[in-house]
Amino acid sequence: MDRILNGPRVFDFFGIPISESVIVMWIVMAIIILLAWVLRNSIKSEVPSGMQNFAEFIVESINSLVTSTMGEEKRGFAPYMGTLFIFIGLANIIGIFGLRPPTADINVTGTLAVMTFVLIHYYGLKSKGLGYFKSFAEPVFLFLPLNIIGELAKPVSLSFRLFGNIFAGTAILAMIYDVAPLFVPIIPHLYFDLFAGLLQSFIFLMLTMVFITLAMD
After folding, report:
1. Do 203 and 113 contact (CB within 8 A), yes or no?
2. By the number of CB atoms within 10 A of the CB, which of 57, 110, 157, 179 ranks highest?
3. What range defines the domain where residue 142 resides?
4. Can you tell me the distance from the alpha carbon of 159 to that of 43, in angstroms, rounded to the nearest whole number?
5. Is 128 helix (H, G, I), strand (E, B) or coil?
6. Nearest to 166 by CA among 107, 86, 109
């Protein structure tokens, strides 16, 4: 069960087990850093062209999505939300290249969900002060236990939704390769790794933005 949830162990680093998910996650982060460096160096003039057009398209798309979902006053969340979407998106679709997606590891999706959980309540408290806690007893005090359970369920549902969908796709593709090892399932890869991967990235991003906005408003 541990191997299924956390991915196969590759080696130990001073007694710390390093799984395949960790190694692939390092690869994803390296790709993001490299792309950021390339795109940053492509910005050389006020007249965009080539890679600069691509970089500006990404930034404008993320800014537009954040402002339309969270409001213009929350535009400052765009860098984090953009990074979150790009990381999860690349982590999901990297299975196309034969690597195990890090998001098929419950530790990775659980950490991302906990980050969202912390941001929800941090910005809710920052926005409303101690009055933020009054919302847990609304509409009447009897709803306090249910509201607390509902808040605690958010990181659980976020992590297992992302993990379950990506892991299921990885497992199905593995079974296809077991049945027909010489067959390259292009269409299943396009669906489970590309389409479903980007869709789940978008869903995680939207839920994160919606939860934070509801906590602040």
Report:
1. no
2. 110
3. 2-216
4. 36
5. helix
6. 109
